Amino acid sequence: MVSSRRLKRYRKEIKSYKSIYKNNLILFLVLIFIVGILIGCILADNINYNQSLNFKNSIINCIEKFKSKDLLNVNLLKDSIFKYSKNIIFIWILGFVNIGLIMSIILLSIKGISLGFVTYFLISNNGFNGILQVCSLYLVQNLVLVPIYIVIVYNSIKFDVFIHGSNFKRYIILLFLCLILVFFIALYELHILPQIINLIF
User: Fold this and answer.
1) Threshold 0.85, pTM exceeds
2) Distance CA 89, CA 92 (A)
3) Residues 6+ away with beta carbon under 8 Å from 41
4) Which residues of 189-198 are buried (b: 16+ CB within 10 A; e: fewer)?
5) Are 132 and 200 in contact (CB under 8 A)?
């Protein structure tokens, strides 16, 4: 009887720990992403002249490509879908791997670093024009992509740690929902983004 009560108590404690872990996990991931942004800003502030010049040229080339009407085709749609979906699918797959937790967090931090780097670089070097570049080139996409990254990393870790082998159907549905959102982002880049860039630049 005593052992049965102890077992129930241990089970309650484990459930409690799991609940606390799950509730704090999303906050932890958001903090990891913010730290990544700050690291990206620091890196952008310390690049040399040649690196700065190369990055400026790549931004100019990116703008010119979007301004070109020849790019409004299926190939651009495929490129955008592949560009955004590859990391999402990879993070999803990490839910089945033992080291998936660490890798998922690293990928999320890299996303934050890249976002912080580009944003800080454009604004610090171009001022108001930099803000226009940030808003036109990638703000809308990342308003959708960043929550997708956080949600897919969260569920990948949760699937790996807590429910590995169960709720697989729900895990697959999550991936499809994320990929549908990626498809709409690609459509935005194909049809709307070039018009915005042509209007601003």
Assistant:
1) no
2) 5
3) 116, 117, 119, 120
4) bbeebbebbe
5) yes
d(CA 166, CA 150): 21
Instruction: Quick: pLDDT tens for 82-108.
Output: 989 999 999 999 988 877 788 999 999
Buried b (16+ CB within 10 A) or exposed e, 20-58: eeeeebeeebeebbeebbebbbeebeeeeeeeeeebeee
Provide the residue type at 18 as one letter. K
DSSP state of 73: S
Question: By the 8 A CB rule, do 181 and 151 touch?
Answer: no
Tokens found for residue 137: 């080139």
Q: Which residue is it, tokens 């870790």?
A: 157
